[in-house]
Amino acid sequence: MNKKAQPNFRDNDGTPMLKFITSELKPKNKILTPFNIISFPIVILGLVLIIIRFAKGLGAITNLSQEVPWGLWIGFDVVTGVAFAGGAYVLTFMVYILNMKKYHSIVRVTILNGFLAYAFYTGALLLDLGRPWNVVNPIIGNNFGASSVLFLVAWHFLLYMMAELLEFSPAIAEWLGAKKAAKILSGMTIGAVIFGITLSSLHQSGLGALYLMAKDKIHPLWYSEFIPILFLVSSVFAGLSMVIFEGSLSQKIFSDQISDKDHKSHDGIIHGLSKICAGAMFAYLFLQFMVFIHGRNWDLLNTPMGYWFLLEMIGFVMIPMMLFFYSYRKRKIWLIRVAAILTMIGVVLNRLNVTVIGFRWNAATHYVPSWMEIVVTFAVIFTEIWIFRWVVSRMPVLRKSPAWAGHDED
Amino acid sequence: MGFDRRNFFRTIAVAGATLAVGSSFGAVKSDEEAVEFQGMLYDSTKCIGCRACERVCAKTYNLPEPKDELKAGVIRNTTETQRTAISNCITSKGEVFGKKQCMHCNEPACTAACLTQAMYKTKEGPVIWRGDKCMGCRYCMVSCPFDVPKFEFHSANPKIQKCDLCYDRIKSGKIPACAEACPADALTFGTRRELIAEARKRIFESPKDYINQIFGEEVAGGTGLLYLSPAPFNELGLNTKLQNSSYPALTKGFLYSVPSVDVLLPPLLLAIYEATKNNNSKEEDNE
Predict the structure, then answer these.
(1) N or C: fewer beta carbons within 10 Å in chain B?
(2) What pLDDT is stored for residue B162 in this prediction?
(3) Rounded distance between C-alpha atoms, residue A366 and residue A363, angstroms
(4) Which residues does chain B have within 8 Å of residue A198's beta carbon, measured at their own beta carbons?
């Protein structure tokens, strides 16, 4: 139960549903915050750019070309965004499958984050589709391109979003005071989790498998037949670093929602996650090393792309890995946060190196995203944060569930 | 070409369903009559660079007539308004003309990439694009090793432009417009098998005029478009560094693993869940 009784944050308790929802739709936080002042104009500008894009075609606002048909919106919004959303499947595996109750208090917010990331970043995919009115074709069977990696990724995305919504749905039911629905939906969680993890493991690797046929277009230091496995393993620490980063911010921003007990346990959670990150990064580094040896690309190291590769591997994988190990041993929470940020930079670098920077690295002219592509990307991210904030300020995500829901472990 | 990649991959879905019960793999019906792939042979020693093929192609598909001049030594590529392009190449054997267009691979990367089968390898051989299925994701462009599909970036209703070997003409018994328009007999249309035999014959009869190689016979698993040249093919602007095995085979391992993981991982997770459910029970509970 909520110890700091806040009249502002309360789940429905007997109010008629319609009246309750209308009252919840009103803004609850201050409107003129620095974040809103920055994000609002960018979102509006983004909307204008999106209208131009649909009126005049992709070429009007993007720098995409016949040689580089996928740019920032795929490489960053989709491929990188989905890696960061990997925290949801890792945490649900730990909490529900391995029964590690220690991490229970952050599982809801992570699922919410994951779900919104999928909804928005793959929603951004619609902006990138040239003929978005045909987007339902692989779903309705016009036609089923079953030999396509993208077909499998699309289906696994779609099903995973449903699984995540199901995992999160008890929070919605608790918020609305729908007791019966909350009970039924909670009962479905474990099934949703099992399928969610399965679907995640395949689409995280599938995003890498998308690039397998682009063998001659990706720099050999980043192309190998093991891209799918490397993407899967790196999604573990990418997702958990995001959980550490986002959790640390939420502790400050939404502190009025979080019970004292959860506040105190958060350092312990971060501490535990740092060890898992370090382990996953060690496995990843080892795999990368094996792939490198196997590829016999020693001569490529002494080139500009080689230095770039070493910077990614040493600066943003090996160093944060050692920081995670060190700060775990010494229990330095602030250093874990630094390591998480470095790791996240490394994941962005890796995904962009495969999809954008190393793609056609040897072409005469390089793809550089236009400022308009970047604005639209930020508009998508800011809108997602708005929705996240709206949900967290209303539903029992960070705060405790209402007493009747009855899943307090203690 | 008895072994058809489409059927091969189609079986993956079937394999996923049958994997659990372990039934045999070869139970896929093939009621389609075996038709030989058709293709086209481009003999650059005969091409005179008149560009009649470019003009008739533009006319046939309502595209603007190419206005730019050929410049010696400049390789021209196909564009979203030009499905085939002739270049005046300076080679080790002097001035030779080169032609670019869709290669119509036996096992195309673009059709394996396409999640709606908008890119489609017809049983007659041409690779065609079907606008009612395409969602404009451009994964075909990412995958095609020859960079053939072109996307209309400046259209609100963009299409993929590429040569379809005049599939509609072929079906009504005609030959591709460019092959019909060629005044120099540089383009020969026929079944791929006949064309390879013809190409070998030309090399055999006048070995001084040709290098002893047919581009398209092996590259990327074999293509429907075949090239003869007096000079190495890379001097005609063709990518000779591509692999000889098929590109869709690169994703085979991943595609095979998907049904297995989908079927095998959930029971494993369920088992771990059941095993750890009563984590708090103590050793003494056993007594």
Answers:
(1) C
(2) 96
(3) 6
(4) 261-262, 265-266, 269
Given pLDDT bands bounded at 50, 70 and 90, which one contains residue A262? Answer: confident
First to last CA, chain B: 68
Residues in chain B: 287
The DSSP bridge partners found for residue B40 are: B189, B225
Band (A121; pLDDT cuts 50, 70, 90):
confident
Q: Which of residues 103-142 of A touch B (CB under 8 A)?
A: 128-132, 134-135, 137-138, 142
> From first to last of its 287 residues, what are the pLDDT tens digits of chain B?
444 555 555 555 544 444 444 444 444 445 556 788 999 999 999 999 999 999 999 999 999 999 888 999 899 999 999 999 999 999 999 999 999 999 999 999 999 999 999 999 999 999 999 999 999 999 999 999 999 999 999 999 999 999 999 999 999 999 999 999 999 999 999 999 999 999 999 999 999 999 999 999 999 999 999 999 999 999 999 999 999 999 999 999 999 999 999 999 999 999 999 998 876 666 666 55
Question: What residues of A are in contact with residue B255 (Cβ under 8 Å)?
Answer: 147, 149, 152
Is B20 in a helix, a strand, or coil?
Answer: coil
What are the structural domain ranges in chain B? 33-105+165-250
As given in the structure block, the two tokens for residue B164 are: 């379809």
Among B212, B211, B239, residue whose Cα is nearest residue B96 = B211
User: Which are the contacts of A73, defined by CB distance < 8 A and separation ≥ 6?
Assistant: A62, A124, A125, A127, A128, A373, A376, A377
Q: At what angle do helices A149-176 and A107-121 cross, to 10 degrees?
A: 130
Question: Could you tell me if A164 and A108 are in contact, meaning their C-beta atoms sit under 8 angstroms apart?
Answer: no
Radius of gyration of chain A (CA): 22
What's the CA gap between A9 and B201, in Å, rounded? 84
Predicted confidence band at A28 (pLDDT cuts at 50, 70, 90)? confident
Q: Which amino acid is at B207?
A: P
What DSSP state is assigned to residue A317?
Answer: I
Give backbone dihedrals phi and psi of B39, rounded to 5 degrees, phi first.
-160, -165
**Is the bond preceding residue B157 a cis peptide, omega within 30 degrees?**
no
Of B161, B186, B195, B192, give the one whose Cα is nearest residue B57: B161
- Partner B contacted by A146 (CB < 8 A): yes
* Domains recognised in chain A with CATH numbers: 45-396 (1.20.1630.10)
What CATH class does B33-105+165-250 carry? Answer: alpha beta
pLDDT band at A5 (very low <50, low <70, confident <90, very high): very low
Kindly report the nearest CA distance between residue B183 and chain A, in angstroms: 31
Report in angstroms the alpha-carbon separations of A243 from A1, A34, A274, A350, B153. Answer: 24, 24, 11, 19, 38
Share in percent of chain B as helix, strand, coil (round to 5): 35, 15, 50
Contact yes or no for B241 and A212 at CB 8 A: no
Pick the residue of A53, A89, A149, A373 with the most B CBs within 10 A to test the interface with B by mutation: A149
Residue type, B141: M
Q: Nearest Cα to B193, choosing from B164, B224, B167, B233?
A: B224
Asked if residue A355 lies in contact with residue A74, where contact means CB atoms within 8 angstroms, the answer is: yes
Look at residues A102, A242, A87 and name the one whose alpha carbon lies nearest to residue A164. Answer: A87
State the complex-level ipTM.
0.90
Contact A67 B116 (CB under 8 A): no
| Number of residues written out for chain A | 410
**DSSP letter string over A103-162?**
GGGGHHHHHHHHHHHHHHHTHHHHHH-SSGGGTTHHHHTS---TT-HHHHHHHHHHHHHH
Determine the Cα–Cα distance for residues A308 and A314; give it in Å rounded to an integer: 10
> Out of B135, B251, B254, whose CB is closest to A137?
B135
**Residue corresponding to tokens 């372990």:** B22
Residue of A nearest to B137 (CA): A129
